[in-house]
Predict the 3D structure of the following.
Amino acid sequence: MNKHPELIVMLTWHDYTVENAAQVFEQCKDSAAHYWGFKEHPLPHEQMRQLYKRMHDCGKTTLMEVVAYTEPEGLEAAQLAAECQCDIVMGTKYSDTIRDYCHSHGLRYMPFVGTVTGRPSVLQGTIDDIVAEARALVDKGVDGIDLLAYRYTGDVVALMQAVTAAVTVPVVMAGSIDSRERLDQVSQSGAWAFTIGSAFFEHRFGQEFADQVDAVCHYVSRR
């Protein structure tokens, strides 16, 4: 595992990809963040393909986070991710079918755990149940866990620490990380990575998008 968590920049606001995602990425293509992604909606598929290609051309690792809770929706999004030559599929409620599709097409698969509903997503369930599900998914061969930590209705810090301690695969803390206090909590949790999307568009870490990205990368790397 890395010594500090990786920033995954999501070109999203309130769990939807922003319309000017390509333009925002161009402003930030030389930033310190290596991991970039967005949601499965609402950009036209050709625009998604072009943007993922541009990210790859700039040396980035790419992710698609899928806010879908049925197997058909999750599988359709995984197929789109494969068409876009994306690297990692995050989200969906786990299914063997989605896992098998991802692995047969060279995609890493990091599904949600817990009871996830809505858009923006909300996470519910007991910590014990979420930990047990995470362990079971590791046994099923997932490549990581997408944990909606700050969307959780219970004790967020306890949840993060319990899940990272329980599994050997990378854990991504996703959603609503909008302060240095939360960056500190994520760093202390043992997470592999964390996502920031809306907070950048809301200028929670500064004014210019690219400057915010670099500021967050610098902040977590100092730990």
